[in-house]
Design brief:
This protein is an alpha/beta fold. The protein is built from nine helices and seven strands, in the order βββαβααααββαααβα.
């Protein structure tokens, strides 16, 4: 089992890294950011946190909700990128929109400026709701761009789910039907996992057998709850 260290220290044994966090700042409801890389197992870990009783807010789900047909973000996206990004039922064609912005920095930034503020407002609303329901709740904010978008500054602790590159490639080939080159392109378009690991308070190894990973999620949630 991993050891809890003093401030500024961290260690990793059997895929579970404990980094000390200033516990005097962790009062009442605790908002924790959860991230990882593509195909590292972040969604699996998020589901485990939910089943263990944490409140999980999914940034991707919020992003889908704020761009539903007729909503302000949807109207702004259509105005900015054109009707070619729509499906016949007027929902956003995420694949078409993704192809339009992938590799185009300015287009991607425009899209993020439309979506991110609205997602942030909804996340804040849900977090406040969770605090009203349970002042000692642990709220896990599952967000792919935790560090890239500066959201780590709005949470009190961060968790990164990691995996080795070959595992990521194998999962992307099986799950998404990508070639190795396509998988590597997706992986390389993200912040390196090594950078995320260095910035995280806690790291979970998403390649562990599920029973062991589930055990570590439960242990981490107990630690987080003890900090509230």
């Amino acid at each position: 089992m991993c050891k809890v260290l003093q401030a500024g220290e961290a260690t990793c044994q059997r895929g579970f890294l404990w980094g000390a966090y200033p516990h005097d700042k962790l009062r009442a409801m605790l908002l924790v950011g959860l991230t990882g890389g593509i195909a590292t197992g972040k969604s699996t870990v998020a589901g485990m946190f939910t089943r263990c009783g944490a409140v999980v807010i999914d940034a991707d789900e919020l992003a889908r909700q704020v761009v539903e047909p007729g909503k302000p973000a949807w109207r702004e996206i259509v105005k900015t990128f054109g009707k070619t990004v729509l499906n016949p039922d007027r929902t956003l064609n995420r694949q078409a929109l993704g192809a339009m912005v992938f590799g185009h920095h300015s287009r991607l930034r425009r899209l993020e400026r439309i979506i991110h503020p609205r997602v942030a407002r909804e996340q804040t609303r849900l977090t406040k709701q969770a605090a009203r329901n349970d002042p000692n709740a642990v709220v896990i904010y599952d967000v792919p761009l935790l560090f890239e978008a500066g959201i780590d500054k709005r949470v009190k602790a961060t968790i990164v789910v990691t995996a080795d590159r070959e595992t990521q490639i194998a999962r992307l080939k099986k799950r998404n039907g990508l070639t190795r080159i396509e998988a590597l392109r997706r992986i390389n378009s993200q912040m390196p996992l090594s950078d995320k690991r260095r910035r995280a308070n806690y790291v979970l190894d998403g390649t562990l057998p599920l029973p062991e990973l589930r055990k570590q999620v439960r242990s981490l949630l107990r630690l987080l709850r003890a900090s509230t």
